[in-house]
Write a structure and sequence with these properties.
Elements lengths: L2 H16 L3 H17 L1 H17 L4 H7 L3 H16 L7 E8 L2 E9 L2 E5 L4 H14 L2 E5 L5 H18 L6 E4 L3 H7 L7 E4 L3 H9 L13 E5 L5 H13 L8 E7 L3 H14 L3 E4 L1 H6 L3 E2 L13 E7 L2 H11 L4 E5 L3 H10 L4 E4 L18 E3 L7 E3 L5 E8 L5 H5 L8 E2 L3
Parallel strand pairs: 3-4, 3-6, 4-5, 7-8, 7-12, 8-11, 9-10, 9-11, 12-13
Antiparallel strand pairs: 1-2, 1-17, 2-16, 14-15
Helix pairs in contact: 2-5, 2-6, 2-7, 3-7, 5-6, 6-7
Length: 427
C-alpha cells in the first residue's frame, strides 16, 4: 500500500474512532499500559541500541537525556495512561443547548479534531504520551519521531498499536512514519490531515509552518524568563531559579533569562552565583552584574538565545515595566515568572506579560500537561487560536452543531410566518 493510500485509510478510520464509547477508549488505554509493561525488556534493549548509536554519532548531551527510555520513564508514561482513564470523557459533552423556535433545538457537542500528525524530537516517552492522549480524545494519529530514537519508537508503536486494536479501536487509527522523506509527503496531505503538531528546533518548526496548508499548532522557541522584583524573598527566589534552570535543562520550559530589579541585585546575585557554581551553571551577566560577581559578560545575542544547557543570562532592570517590555520583546510567549511578595506587582506582571503561562513564585518547569493534571500533553502551544499552553485533552477536541427540527424551513422565518425566540434549554 502506497503512502497516500495509507493516509487515506487513517482518514477513513477517523469517524469510526470518534464514535467509540468512553468505555472502549479507557479499556484500550489500560490494555496498552499493560502491553508496554510486558514488552519492557524488548523496549529497553531497543533504546540501549539507539543510545549507543547516538553516542557514536556525537549527539549532544541534552538530546541523549531526552532519548533515554528507562524504568523511570516507563513508570511515568504508564501512570499517565491510568490518570487519563480517570479523567472525564472530553467527547460528547454538550456545551450549548438552545431552542431556536418551538420544535427547533440546537446543541453544540464536543468531538475529536480528526487526524493529527505529530512530528517530535528524540523523545520516546512523547510517542507514548501522544498516542494515549489521541486514544482518549478519539483522534487518529500519525507519528514521526526523531531518527535518533528509531528502534525504540518502532517497538513502542508496534506494542501500542497491536494492543489498542485488539482492545477495540478501529484498524488504521494510528500510523507511524520512519523515513525523513515521508515528512514532506505528510505536509502535502491537507485533504486527509486536520492538524499538525511539530516539536523540535525553531528552524524545524518554521519549516513545517512554511511548507504545508495543514493548520499547525505548537511553538518554535522556549525562551522563558524569571523577573526578580524588588520585593522578592531571596530565600524563596534562589531555589525557584535553580529548579527552573537545572531540574531538566533541555526542556522548553527551562528558564533562559533572569531579569533582576536594580534594588535587589546586590543582595541576590552573590548568593545566586555561588549556587550556580555548585550546580555548574555558567552565568552570563550584563555589565552591572559582571562588575558585581565573577561571570561571563553577556552579549545582545544572549537576550534571544534558548540555551537548553547549563547556561543562563542575567540582566539588571530599572523596574517592572522594563522587565515586562523585555519579556514581551525577546521572549517566546511560552512561560514567564515573577518572584515577588508584592501582590500588586504580581497582578501587573500577569496582566501585561503576553505568554501562555505567567507564574508567581514558582518554577517555570511546572508548564507541563501532566503537572497541570491534563494526563500529559501533545505539546505546548504559544499561539492564541484554539489551544494555548500545555495541550492536553481539552486542546484535542473541537465541536459540532447538531440541529433537530420538525420540518422547519428558513422561508417561514424570512416571510415572518414564524419567529425565533432563542430560549436556553435547561438540562
Amino acid at each position: 500500500m502506497g503512502f497516500l493510500e495509507q493516509i487515506k485509510q487513517v482518514k477513513l478510520a477517523s469517524p469510526k474512532l470518534a464514535a467509540t464509547s468512553e468505555e472502549i477508549r479507557n479499556k484500550v488505554l489500560l490494555a496498552v499500559s499493560e502491553a508496554l509493561l510486558q514488552a519492557k525488556e524488548e523496549i529497553f534493549a531497543a533504546n540501549e541500541a539507539d543510545m549507543k548509536q547516538a553516542e557514536q554519532d556525537g549527539v549532544a548531551a541534552p538530546i541523549l537525556k531526552r532519548l533515554k527510555f528507562d524504568e523511570g520513564k516507563l513508570k511515568d508514561v504508564v501512570a499517565g495512561m491510568k490518570d487519563l482513564v480517570n479523567l472525564a470523557d472530553p467527547l460528547f459533552q454538550i456545551q450549548l443547548a438552545r431552542e431556536l423556535d418551538e420544535g427547533l433545538r440546537l446543541y453544540r457537542e464536543t468531538c475529536p479534531i480528526g487526524v493529527i500528525g505529530v512530528i517530535f524530537e528524540a523523545r520516546p516517552d512523547a510517542l507514548v504520551q501522544i498516542s494515549a492522549l489521541c486514544i482518549k480524545s478519539g483522534n487518529c494519529v500519525i507519528l514521526k519521531g526523531g531518527s535518533e530514537a528509531m528502534q525504540t519508537n518502532k517497538i513502542l508503536f508496534q506494542t501500542i498499536y497491536q494492543a489498542a486494536v485488539e482492545a477495540g479501536i478501529p484498524e488504521n487509527s494510528m500510523m507511524q512514519l520512519e523515513a525523513r522523506s515521508e515528512i514532506a509527503e505528510l505536509l502535502s496531505c491537507h485533504e486527509f490531515v486536520d492538524l499538525l503538531i511539530p516539536r523540535g528546533s525553531n528552524s524545524f518548526v518554521q519549516y513545517i509552518m512554511n511548507n504545508t496548508k495543514i493548520p499547525v499548532m505548537g511553538h518554535a522557541d522556549g525562551i522563558c524568563h524569571i523577573y526578580v522584583d524588588a520585593d522578592a524573598d531571596i530565600d524563596k527566589a534562589i531555589p525557584v531559579i535553580l529548579d527552573a534552570k537545572t531540574q531538566y535543562v533541555s526542556a522548553c520550559n527551562t528558564v533562559e533569562t533572569l531579569l533582576v530589579h536594580k534594588d535587589i541585585v546586590g543582595t541576590l546575585m552573590p548568593r545566586l552565583q555561588e549556587a550556580f557554581r555548585e550546580k555548574k551553571v555558567e552565568l552570563r551577566g550584563s555589565k552591572e552584574i559582571a562588575a558585581l560577581v565573577d561571570c561571563v559578560e553577556a552579549t545582545p545575542e544572549d537576550d534571544k538565545t534558548e540555551y537548553l544547557d547549563y547556561i543562563i543570562s542575567a540582566k539588571v532592570v530599572e523596574d517592572i515595566k522594563e522587565a515586562i517590555e523585555h519579556i514581551n520583546y525577546y521572549g517566546s510567549h511560552h512561560t514567564d515568572c515573577i518572584i515577588t511578595e508584592n501582590k500588586g506587582q504580581a497582578e501587573e506582571f500577569m496582566k501585561l506579560v503576553d505568554s501562555a503561562g505567567v507564574y508567581q513564585n514558582c518554577s517555570t518547569r511546572f508548564a507541563d500537561g501532566f503537572r497541570y493534571g491534563f494526563g500529559a500533553e501533545v505539546g505546548i502551544s504559544t499561539g492564541k487560536i484554539h489551544a494555548r499552553g500545555p495541550v492536553g485533552l481539552e486542546g484535542l477536541v473541537s465541536y459540532k452543531y447538531k440541529l433537530f427540527g420538525e420540518g422547519h424551513i428558513v422561508e417561514d422565518y424570512a416571510k415572518g410566518i414564524k419567529n425565533f425566540h432563542f430560549k436556553d434549554i435547561n438540562s
